[in-house]
Design brief:
- There is one protein chain.
- The chain is an alpha+beta fold and 172 residues long.
- The chain has one domain: Aminopeptidase.
- The chain contains four helices and eight strands; from the N terminus they run E-E-H-H-E-E-E-H-E-H-E-E.
- The chain has an eight-stranded mixed beta sheet with strand order 1-2-3-4-5-6-8-7, sandwiched between helices.
- 33% of the residues are buried.
């Protein structure tokens, strides 16, 4: 499988834009609420730290069998960045797997943005050469579980590093 590159994805209200280093200052503000780290740990990055992280992410995985696809979520009507979605596609095996994740800034939570963005991402991944889409979600994070379910993923009940594995087999 050739490396997969993030492409712009459009949904009803959102533009998922391939990540650029220039997004770091605005995204540092979007992601600045410590509450966003309740289930994932850590703390908000400074704009400089986020810029450094984005430089690594944009450069891509050092493993040629792994594609890092990252997007910022833009709320089209406001022209604002409001979160991120990402997919790490591992094609080392004959059945490529995409692991996805999402985060929406606190002011925009409850607007259905994570659900819409994740559905757009899953639809896009379904057109790539992946066999399975997975997510790992903290057992107490009901909002993320609802997003995964709305995107067609099903809880496997399996724990991985304290998080529940969700999965969707992609039909061909």
């Amino acid at each position: 499988m050739n490396p997969v590159m993030a492409e712009a994805i459009t949904t009803e209200r959102l533009d998922l834009l391939p990540l650029r280093v220039e997004h770091a200052p605005e995204m540092a503000t979007v992601l600045s609420d410590p509450a966003l780290h309740t289930f994932i740990g850590g703390s908000p990055d400074t704009p400089e730290a986020l810029r450094t992280r984005y430089l690594r992410m944009v450069a891509g995985s050092p493993d040629p069998a792994v594609s890092w696809c990252n997007w910022v979520i833009q709320l089209r009507s406001e022209g604002l960045l409001v979160g991120t979605v990402q997919a790490t596609i591992d094609s080392a095996d004959s059945d490529p797997v995409a692991e996805i994740a999402w985060v929406v800034g606190t002011p925009w939570q409850g607007w259905g943005i994570a659900t819409e963005a994740t559905q757009g991402l899953v639809d896009w991944l379904s057109q790539q050469q992946v066999e399975e889409i997975i997510a790992h979600i903290h057992p107490d994070h009901g909002a993320s579980a609802a997003v995964a379910e709305a995107a067609g993923l099903t809880s496997t009940g399996e724990l991985h590093n304290g998080e529940i594995r969700w999965s969707r087999i992609v039909g061909r």
